[in-house]
Design a protein that fits this description.
This protein is mainly alpha-helical and 319 residues long. 69% of the residues lie in helices and 0% in strands. It contains 14 helices and no strands. The longest helix has 40 residues. The radius of gyration is 31 Å and the shape is flat.
């Protein structure tokens, strides 16, 4: 009986591989059903996030666009582009645009330059931890807390004027928050004092990721400190620089809390940025149509500036 059962087996070569198993192929219908099920599962996981983004971001933005085409009077509610024409006819909005441009330049240049310089100086220093703590600590504070500190320093009888008076420099004392453009400049400095901390952290991460062998080889070739920084360090910090400048650009365009606590856009409306003007028009002047138009313009500027900058920087070397 064992001989007959053995004879029924398929013949194989001695010591050769076993006969391959038959592979069962899935039918097209089963494959399509599997793909559909995977998509449904992925969609189920994404649905809560999409719902929250739509509910709290997209829906209010669409309503803001809709509201910007309506005036604030009962006689002619639909006003087309009258609210947007205020940018050309209202002097306060013209000054707000100037202040916003100043904020963008100051909040991009100062944190970038100061953050890069402090990161390079403290990267290999013995006192680097203490210096980093002193620089990064203001970033942990809220904008309102920073404004309270600087308000104590910049008022007419504040710390800055008292120090100047005690040093015999009475001619330099002034109302730092009372005249334009000086008040805008000192607020930009206050913002840079806070924002430099995150730039230092990011640049330190970038510096510590540079291979030391690269700098050693460059030094052996006779390159000085400035040449190493220009041709080795700075190019390898390009991805970090993109992040720092992008964050500073967006924060400069939407700055509000520091300005509001320090001056509330005053004196008059001299220190308003577009974000402050949007709040002032909507909640203080009770002109929600004009405030909605300012919000739409500010959103378009932020998105366009961020997209143009990131597209240009990321397409240079495919970063």
């Amino acid at each position: 009986m064992s001989t007959s059962m053995t004879d029924r087996r398929p013949p194989t070569a001695a010591g050769g591989p076993a006969a391959p198993h038959r592979v069962m192929r899935r039918s097209p219908l089963a494959h399509a059903w599997r793909n559909a099920r995977e998509r449904l599962v992925a969609g189920g996981f994404m649905a809560p996030a999409v719902l929250l983004v739509t509910l709290f971001l997209l829906a209010p933005f669409v309503w803001t666009i809709y509201r910007s085409f309506f005036s604030d009077t009962r006689t002619s509610p639909f006003s087309w582009f009258d609210n947007y024409s205020l940018f050309a006819s209202d002097p306060a909005l013209s000054r707000s645009i100037q202040n916003t441009l100043m904020w963008v330049v100051g909040t991009v240049v100062l944190p970038f330059v100061l953050g890069l310089a402090i990161a390079c100086m403290t990267n290999a220093s013995r006192l680097s931890r203490l210096a980093r703590l002193c620089v990064v600590l203001p970033y942990a504070l809220s904008g309102s807390a920073v404004a309270v500190v600087w308000n104590f320093m910049l008022t007419t009888d504040g710390a800055v004027n008292q120090v100047l008076t005690s040093a015999g420099l009475d001619s330099l004392t002034q109302g730092w928050l009372l005249t334009w453009p000086g008040n805008t400049i000192v607020m930009i400095l206050a913002n840079a004092w806070q924002a430099t901390g995150v730039a230092v952290i990011l640049f330190l991460v970038g510096l510590q990721s540079i291979p030391p062998e690269t700098l050693e080889a460059c030094s052996l070739d006779g390159a000085g400190g400035w040449q190493q920084f220009r041709h080795i360090v700075l190019p390898q910090l390009r991805p970090v620089s993109i992040i720092v400048i992008g964050m500073s650009l967006v924060n400069g365009l939407k700055s509000f809390d520091l300005i509001w606590v320090l001056t509330q856009g005053g004196p008059g409306r001299a220190t308003e940025t577009l974000a402050v003007s949007m709040y002032n028009e909507t909640f203080l002047e009770l002109r929600p149509g004009a405030g909605a138009a300012i919000a739409v313009v500010l959103t378009v500027i932020v998105l366009a500036a961020s997209w143009l900058y990131l597209r240009r920087q990321l397409d240079v070397k495919g970063v």
